[in-house]
Amino acid sequence: MKKKIMILIGILIVILLAIILIQVNVKVKKIIQPYRAQEEIQIEIQGIIEETKQQIQENENREATLQDLKTVMQNKGYELNDVEGKVEYKGYLVQIDESLNILQIEKIIKISYQITARKDVETLGIFLIAEDKECEISKIECPNENTVYFKNKNKIAIDYDIKFGTDYKFIVTNKNGDTKELIINEDKPERLYLYKAGDQCTSVTGGYKVNILQNASTTHAFNSNNIYLKAQSIYGVGYGEIELYANKTVDVTKYLNIYFDMDYHVGFGQSDWRTKLYYGLNGKMQTVSGTNNSRGKTIPMNIGYLLGEQRVYFKLYSASSESYTDLRIRNIYIE
Fold first, then answer.
1. Which are the contacts of 241, defined by CB distance < 8 A and separation ≥ 6?
2. Fewer Cβ in 10 A, N or C end of the chain?
3. Residue 106: pLDDT band by 50, 70, 90 thresholds?
4. How many secondary structure helices (H) and strands (E) does the chain include?
5. Maximum distance among all Cα pairs of the chain, rounded to whole angstroms
6. d(CA 227, CA 250)
7. In sequence order, what are the beta bridge partners of 86?
8. Of 158, 125, 113, 184, residue with least CA distance to 306
9. Distance CA 248, CA 102 (A)
10. pLDDT tens digit sequence for 127-168
11. Does residue 76 have a pLDDT over 80?
């Protein structure tokens, strides 16, 4: 009985030692794997360099150059920039000098971001994207000490909110332990005028253009401190329809609102669907119809989820000889 107990204890000790050795081996592999991969890349590149030197020496009896190496690399399916001496090779960026010495080997992990929205006065939404074509991405370490893990993904993306004027560091790690970091810090945009009391802000908007669509009765004037537009139909003649738009677009990606300091009159005395005012940007438009008046007000419009280039646009329409639509613009700005 005693002998059996001793045998059983011996077996348990062996199993325990095996488990410890496996764990140690896994940890060691994780540590040395990225270095081993980089060493293999260096050996392969050095082999191509030696091959190039030998070919040039045997065929032309001279020293090989970066241009010669570029030709050999092209034959193997890799494009060497012979000005910078850089080539993407099996997921690594390798830099080689004019004497064909390997200067640097760096794992290529692409990490970038896109702004998705201006969520409030101080917050931007972003879309973070990371990609490693040669090795799966295992995790992203986020600034809030939260780590997001992935499996079987060479390209990943996460949503994240950032505050203006603050550093946010993201660290991407692939399955081999290679890392790439990205620091994001977005400045808060200042108020940008698109029209200011007679100033068409041409450096931003390119100025404004009037287009008469139906000329029964339309009026427009670029006054010293405002723009005035009016549309009215004439019985038996036709409708009145006129539009105003900026000649250039403006990037509104980081802005929360656009503000219209303007007066308008739509309709006459009673509700009338035949008179309308459209104003806003080409990606988002407000419509005023029926009988409506606004005087001495600055009207905000949320554009937080509009991205990229947008154009300021207005259109006045009247299909009633008994009513009209007019508009006086004093200021337009985004912030």
1. 212, 213, 214, 218, 231, 315, 316, 317, 318
2. N
3. confident
4. 3, 24
5. 118
6. 20
7. 81, 95
8. 125
9. 48
10. 999 999 888 999 999 998 899 999 999 999 999 999 999 999
11. yes
| Separation CA 23–CA 17 (nearest Å) | 10
Query: Tokens standing for 310?
Result: 């947008």
Report in angstroms the alpha-carbon separations of 80 from 31, 91, 178: 30, 14, 23
Enumerate domains of the chain plus CATH numbers. 35-107 (no CATH), 110-184 (2.60.40.10), 192-334 (2.60.120)
Q: How many residues in total does the chain contain?
A: 335
Question: What does the alpha-carbon distance between residue 68 and residue 77 come to, in Å, rounded to a whole number?
Answer: 15
CA angle (253, 256, 261) in 5-degree steps: 115
Residues 6+ apart with CB under 8 A from 326: 219, 228, 229, 230, 231, 264, 265, 316
Share of the chain above pLDDT 70, in %: 86
Alpha helices, H only, 141-224: 202-205
- DSSP 8-state secondary structure symbol assigned to residue 191: P
Examine the pLDDT at 170 and tell me if it is beyond 60.
yes
More confident residue, 124 or 239: 124
Q: Which of 113, 146, 131 is nearest to 180 (CA)?
A: 131
- Chain-centre distance for alpha carbon 235: 52
Instruction: Round to whole Å and give the CA distance between 58 and 68.
Output: 13
Mind giving me the DSSP string for 8-52? HHHHHHHHHHHHHHHHHHHHHHHHHHHHHHHHHHHHHHHHHHHHH
The token pair that represents 139 in the structure block: 């995790």
Angle between helices 2-60 and 66-75 (to 10 degrees): 120
Region 242-269: mean pLDDT is 93
What's the predicted TM-score (pTM) here? 0.76
- How much is the pLDDT for 35? 54
pLDDT at position 275 is 84
Q: What is the pLDDT of residue 10?
A: 58
Estimate to the nearest angstrom the gap between the alpha carbon of 102 and the chain centroid.
34
Distance from chain centroid for Cα 189: 16
